[in-house]
């Protein structure tokens, strides 16, 4: 850090952040090339998913560290939910700002839990180091998986040639029976079809349809939306929502009507979207979000862990039961290995 005094602030009103030029730019699409790292995303989580923000910010001159939190569970947790692929701190400048933030958070709470943290970019290690340096005890464990495809210069035909034989056979047999369209803008009629398809799919009830619609519309306005629809006999039978930015395609939602399963419309539509993002959008990476669904392995080639970090003040009595359980799990795992 520079010689400037570090200033710590906690924002429960995100409009304050919108009106702060430095922070607003740091948390905008101009600087952050994934939706989950942006102020707009957190505003929609607040508006449509009922999450109450507590944006923790440390600043030193023109440098800043931002930890998007919510405190509605009784102790601070990540400002994220099931729509969020991964959670990480936003940092411009010296990582010591994150340590200063962690030190100040001890005044707010005796425990902080952050889930879905990646470490391919060093985020989990950075957070663990910062909180340990600030006197917190940190428990770190894998909590989820993230399937990805590194395109590695391939075109669509080269990519599809490397898929499992069963999938390639399905695409060859079914593609002529299903018509696909990929829109790069938001369309009310197509979105209504998506919602109707989702209601007849194998998927659980949508957590927040309003959030998803608002996000799709905003991404369409920004030119980042890839909205796919599959039809048979004029009927919409599958739909998917992807977004593209910063060289990455994010697969957010996919669904097909159960009655249409014999036509494999989901696979055919997924292939059409892969063709779009690989050959037209020229992405370097395709991110299939979290979850270890077997079908993801047909399309993806790598798996990355997502971590849960539980930070605790070791002398706080309310943390002792958590520490005891963690100790028992460690001993049980050690005994199993031994």
UniProtKB/TrEMBL annotation:
Residues 167-297 form the BioF2-like acetyltransferase domain. InterPro entries: Acyl_CoA_acyltransferase, BioF2-like_GNAT_dom. Gene3D superfamilies: 3.40.630.30. It holds the Pfam family Acetyltransf_6. This is GNAT family N-acetyltransferase.
């Amino acid at each position: 850090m520079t010689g400037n005094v570090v200033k710590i602030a906690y924002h429960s009103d995100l409009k304050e952040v919108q009106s702060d030029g430095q922070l607003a730019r740091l948390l905008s699409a101009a600087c952050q090339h994934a939706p989950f790292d942006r102020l707009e995303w957190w505003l929609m989580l607040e508006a449509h998913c009922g999450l109450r923000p507590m944006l923790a910010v440390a600043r030193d001159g023109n440098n800043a560290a931002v930890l998007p939190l919510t405190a509605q569970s009784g102790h601070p947790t990540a400002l994220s939910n099931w729509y969020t692929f991964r959670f990480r701190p936003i940092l411009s400048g010296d990582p010591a700002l994150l340590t200063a933030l962690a030190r100040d958070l001890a005044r707010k709470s005796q425990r902080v839990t952050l889930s879905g943290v990646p470490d391919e970019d060093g985020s989990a290690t950075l957070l663990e180091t910062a909180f340990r340096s600030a006197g917190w005890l940190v428990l770190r464990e894998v909590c989820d998986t993230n399937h990805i495809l590194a395109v590695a210069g391939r075109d669509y035909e080269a990519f599809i040639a490397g898929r499992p034989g069963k999938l390639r056979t399905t695409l060859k047999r079914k593609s002529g029976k299903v018509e696909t369209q990929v829109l790069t803008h938001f369309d009310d009629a197509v979105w209504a079809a998506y919602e109707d398809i989702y209601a007849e799919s194998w998927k659980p009830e949508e957590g927040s349809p309003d959030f998803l619609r608002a996000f799709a519309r905003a991404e369409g306005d920004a030119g980042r939306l890839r909205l796919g629809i599959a039809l048979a006999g004029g009927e919409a039978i599958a739909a998917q929502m992807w977004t593209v930015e910063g060289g990455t395609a994010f697969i957010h939602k996919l669904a097909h009507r159960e009655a249409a399963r014999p036509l494999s419309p989901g696979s055919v539509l997924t292939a059409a979207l892969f063709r779009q993002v690989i050959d037209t959008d020229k992405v370097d990476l395709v991110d299939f979000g979290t979850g270890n669904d077997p079908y993801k392995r047909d399309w993806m080639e790598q798996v990355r862990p997502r971590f849960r970090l539980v930070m605790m003040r070791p002398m706080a009595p309310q943390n002792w039961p958590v520490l005891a359980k963690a100790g028992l799990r460690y001993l049980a795992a050690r005994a199993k290995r031994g």
